[in-house]
Amino acid sequence: MNKLYVLIIFSVVFLQSLRAQSAPEPEVAQAVTQMMRAQEAAWNRGDLAAFMEGYWVSDDLVFVGGRGPTYGYENTWAGYVKGYPDRAAMGKLHFDFLRMTQWDENTLQLIGRYTLTREDDTPTGYFTLLLRRIEGTWKIVSDHSSAAPQ
Asked: How many domains does the chain have?
């Protein structure tokens, strides 16, 4: 009887681990895609405040870029304002989604590529986002973005 009990527990844990690395539920994928497209549109209108609505308003937000980690919503906001002071610096943003993995009902990882089209250059790179469903809304809680070699 003990062996059967252990086998059942092992099976449940194993099946949950398979779920931990699955494609997102369709409504989750749609909600995250919609949030990311809203960020893209806000950026392309030059509206950084609306772009930042995709991020978790918390001191625990983490953004990792070329200058290292930035902690907190306010510091992340300040970094965007400093790095993209005007429409010319912002350019036109486009996201390509490469892989979405839903870890549990409230956690999702998104790997993608960003491209900025500007008058004199077209910087591009990759990002890994960790999103959490917070009060019913998907928010970026960790953003690791890196530039691709030009």
From this structure: 1
